[in-house]
Amino acid sequence: MTNKVLEFTNVSFHYQATKASKPTVIFDQVDWHVKEGEFVSIIGPSGYGKSTLFRLVTGLENPDSGKISLNGEVTMGRLGKVGYMPQQDLLMPWRTILENVQLPVELQGRKPSSDEIIQLLADFGLAGEENAYPGNLSGGMRQRVSFLRTILTGSNILLLDEPFSALDAITRLTMQEWLIDQWQKLDKTIVFITHDIDEALFLSDRIFVLAEKPVQTIREVIVPLSRPRTMRDLARPELMELKEQLIGDLRSEARL
Amino acid sequence: MKKMTSYSWSILFVAIVLGVWEIAARLYDKSFLFPSPSAILIRLWELKTELFIHHLPPTALTILIGLSISIIIGSTLAIAMYSKKPIEQAFYPILIASQTIPVIALAPIFVLWFGYSIWSKVAVTVLITFFPITVSVFDGLRSSDKNLHELMRTMGASSKDIFYKLDLPSALPSFFSGLKVAVTLSVIGAAIGEWLGAQAGLGYFSRRMMTQFDSAAVFAPIVLLSAVGIIFFLFVVILEKHFLHWRNHQ
Predict the structure, then answer these.
(1) What integer is the mean pLDDT of A115-144?
(2) Which domains does chain A have, with CATH numbers?
(3) Interface test with B, best of A61, A76, A82, A94 (most B CBs within 10 A)
(4) Which of A98, A158, A202, B226 has the fewest CB atoms found within 10 Å of its own CB?
């Protein structure tokens, strides 16, 4: 459990000036790491670099200086090496569920095995939906399809970008429990973006707070809960206190 | 059932128009100027061999060749404009400007260039149908989801993968909309081309009958032209249903 699967060393990054805005420095010499098999969350107000962090990890952007290493290997070509699940499900409406899930396998030039994927769909509560189109599925089901597609990238690191933010409260709760279940079965490292503090506390081993502009240090909060957890654990006094403190951190920044 | 009722309303409307026309034409009673629908149908029947054997095939062929050329050139140009910004900047303004040129006024020059062969009519058809196809394919390609584009990149997709698996399927709905417009325009293009000079064709025949004051025979090929347009249109609708069948699931 001590292998660092994802590590930032002295990473700086800024967005180029556009017509509408001045150049914005997002990260200034940031160090950060995630260990193998961890479930960590990133919280922070909008515009504080949560999505940029993911863009750097996936390789959509490269740092101005500093190193990003995946599984102990420093590399510029990170595209195709990390499983990224976006906020919207982004399923292709013209592909069936099966074809959507097979996309990453196809892109790697491997031959997708339908039987195996149909079995996985069944494990994900999507039995019999392989030939349906995304338009026929509920929001929760589409997110599960999107998650399965992310898993089939074959990567050991999964980045989930507010995957449940568009779901209603009940579906969301079910999906959170389901996600923890899957994480424990799959033996993957998950980095989860959210702006819901309860969600972060319930799901994660560690929480990282992005609350400065530009980010110089990513504050780490260890969640003092063992697993399995229930929603009731969040009502414990020490958790309430931690939550107050996190809200305080984010609010003092959001006001600026 | 709902579809049936919507069709039956339009059938009813057409029936009323034809009925009024029939009565008006009979009251006016100058069939060489204003023929009744029944007179047109009778004339169509009398001329059936000539129209179907001699004049329909060249017109249908002009439409088919013209449309095919437009689809090939238009899609190619649209893809080129989408993939290379300088090509877009060079061609897009010209493309828009070209639509302000009255195509009909240009038609005589095609007769000069291509003579009375089928190619002068094809040229008019291409010129008139090229624009909707190019613009619809271009807009369709541009409508592809940018987030999905990035997601595919995080999966290690090459630009070729993204083009074939994302851009092209995204462009199909728009392409079919453009094709429907182009099909209806192609009938007009072929007819105009034939007016200027031809030895056969529905547009040519219609115009020739005008000089003979046989107005029922002017209308008869027009009925056929319109039928050709409707048939091509329905064919596109069938293709569209086939390729975009996933849209029924939304």
Answers:
(1) 89
(2) 4-82+156-254 (3.40.50.300), 87-154 (no CATH)
(3) A94
(4) B226
Phi, psi (deg, nearest 5) at residue A157: -115, 125
Q: Is B151 on the interface with A (CB under 8 A)?
A: yes
Contacts of A112 in chain B (CB under 8 A): none
Token pair for B83: 């993939």
The yes-or-no verdict on residue B60 having pLDDT over 90 is yes
CB neighbour class for A192 (10 Å; exposed up to 12, middle 13-18, buried from 19): buried
How confident is the model over B1-14, as pLDDT tens digits?
455 667 888 999 99
Contact yes or no for A152/A97 (Cβ under 8 A): no
The shortest CB-CB distance from A153 to any of B155, B169, B244 is to B155
3-class state of residue A10 by DSSP? strand
Residue with tokens 């996933």: B246
Give the integer Cα–Cα distance in Å for A47 and A35: 26
Query: Which strand (E) or helix (H) includes residue B150?
Result: helix B146-154
Provide the pLDDT confidence category of residue A1 given band limits of 50, 70 and 90.
very low
CB B140 within 8 A of CB B170: yes
N residues, chain B:
250
- A61 near A72, Cβ under 8 Å? no
- What integer best gives the mean pLDDT of chain B? 91
pLDDT per residue over A21-31, tens digit each?
A: 788 888 999 89
